């Protein structure tokens, strides 16, 4: 079985975490839908997997995010892909494991990704008063793994080395590789707003010609900074630790699916 077609569900409220590198700020949010309305809105789509991700970290309130997942699964019986930079408590981990069990019983998978893209420099791109520390997220990865959910490490966006030293990403891999199923890593995408929030100058970088990560996910104008050397170092570190590294989520998900 191959997972090809994805769809997205997300709460409409602006994200609590307010990361400086985030490009969801410009998304139009005309209406704040209920969970039932969010789920209804994909009823005419064909898909293999639902990404619980798009305009928001849907798990800044994990109980609310888990309700969204439970309801989406009950309605569509589809694979789910969760992405968060939050940390769950033991009850929430238990609920997550129960959902996974339910899904596995009909041959569906719960893919769970934890976002961390820096270690000591996270204050440069995250609001540290709102987000758990990288070390706490690393600990969460280990807890998930101990509970039978080997998460994907979402090591992105990768910044140019002189802004966030690449060694920080390598440290995160060293600290998590035994507990993760794979790594997804890709470059920083920017528009004028992101550049302003990060207080970096557009002309300091080379940019990639095209990148299709956001196709179907978000309709916004983003260009990606060329951090090929940094990504090479991440890939090498992953290979040395026996972990696969992907730049796109769909190949990563299929890799985990085939391993499981
Ligand atoms: S947690 Fe995700 S959606 Fe929320 S502000 Fe940060 S990057 Fe954006």
Structural notes for this entry:
The chain is α/β, with parallel strands linked by helices. Helix content is 35%, strand content 15%. Helix 5 (166-176) runs parallel beside helix 7. The radius of gyration is 17 Å and the shape is globular. The mean pLDDT is 95. It binds iron/sulfur cluster (SF4). Iron/sulfur cluster binds next to loops.
One letter per element, helices H and strands E, the order comes to EHEHEHEHEHEEHEHEH
CATH architecture: Alpha-Beta Barrel
Rg of Cα set: 17 Å
The domain tally reads 1
**Structural class of the secondary structure composition?**
alpha/beta
The CATH C-level name is: Alpha Beta
Mean pLDDT: 95
Helix amount, in percent? 25-40%
Question: Largest sheet, described in full?
Answer: 7 strands, parallel
In spatial order, strands of the major sheet run 1-2-3-4-5-6-9
The overall strand count is 9
Residue share in β-strands: 15-25%
């Amino acid at each position: 079985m191959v997972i090809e077609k994805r769809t997205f569900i997300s709460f409409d409220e602006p994200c609590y975490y307010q990361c400086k590198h985030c490009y969801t700020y410009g998304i139009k949010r005309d209406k704040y839908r209920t969970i039932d309305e969010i789920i209804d809105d994909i009823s005419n789509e064909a898909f293999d997997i639902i990404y619980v991700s798009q305009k928001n970290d849907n798990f800044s309130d994990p109980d609310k995010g888990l309700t969204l997942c439970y309801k989406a699964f009950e309605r569509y019986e589809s694979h789910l892909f969760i992405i968060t930079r939050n940390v769950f408590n033991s009850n929430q981990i238990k609920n997550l494991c129960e959902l996974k069990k339910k899904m596995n019983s009909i041959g569906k998978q719960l893919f769970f990704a934890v976002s961390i893209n820096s270690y000591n420099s996270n204050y440069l791109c995250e609001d540290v008063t709102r987000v758990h520390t990288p070390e706490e997220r690393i600990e969460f990865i280990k807890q998930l793994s101990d509970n039978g959910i080997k998460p994907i490490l979402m090591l992105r966006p990768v910044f140019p080395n002189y802004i966030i030293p690449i060694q920080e990403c390598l440290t995160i891999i060293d600290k998590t590789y035994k507990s993760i199923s794979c790594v997804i890593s890709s470059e920083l995408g920017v528009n004028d707003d992101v550049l302003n929030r990060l207080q970096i100058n557009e002309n300091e970088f080379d940019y990639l010609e095209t990148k299709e990560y956001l196709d179907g996910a978000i309709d916004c104008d983003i260009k990606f900074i060329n951090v090929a050397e940094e990504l090479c170092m991440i890939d090498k570190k992953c290979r040395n630790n026996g972990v696969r590294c992907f730049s796109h989520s769909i190949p990563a998900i299929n890799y985990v699916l085939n391993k499981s």
